[in-house]
Here is the input.
Amino acid sequence: MFKVIGALIGFWVFGFLGALLGFFIGSAYDRVRMLGLGGANPLTRNHRQQVFLQTIFTLKGKLAKADGHISQAEIDHTEAFMRQLKMSAEQRQQAIEWFKQGSGPDYDVSTVIQEFRRTCGHTANLPEVLLVFLVVIALADGDFDAAEEALLADIARQLGFSDTQFRQILERTLNQTHFAPGQTSQNQLADAYKALGVDESCSDQELKRAYRKLMSQYHPDKLMGQGVPDDMIELGKQQTQEIQAAYELIKRSRTA
Here is the structure.
């Protein structure tokens, strides 16, 4: 939007060259608004992708060991996760090393989180996307225990979220998984509201605003621009499908 405004103002003030300058300035502003200041420079995208991957696999290792041992289900999920990302043999080896490092008994998660915040912390919502992905990963083996929740709460605090914000993100994510293909829920409508982070008494306008905000957060262009590796965009698509399903259920209930 601002690239068009910039071009028009530039043309009105300085003519054709001013229009070009205004277009580029407006484009840069649009990028900052969509991706945050940390995602505005496309030249740093590859580095952000590398740091994002390192953070995911290192913390995945820490989560796997949170209850004291790494289960076969967690190993199987890690292998399936690497296949989903279509990693080369070299990339797989690096990911395994990160996983092993994170699962070490004395590993301090603050090391990798501090690097993530330096590199990716100033993007529009990449810290929240990381936290949501970690919750989804923790749920993958079908056993979400107190040790994993406590670790995720600590990670959230180090990412800059308050305990209240963490509980909100966790509740939304847990309820979004109820709308994954093949999943069912006894209180589906109530879960749908929780999945969108709104109260059942919210207005249609408030509902739509919450829905659009969540859908925007996982838009493929935004995720890629901020630094989510291309092959991990599928995780974001899964989130949007669950959010869409919850929203459609609420809409049907309100028009019935």
DSSP finds 13 helices and no strands in the chain.
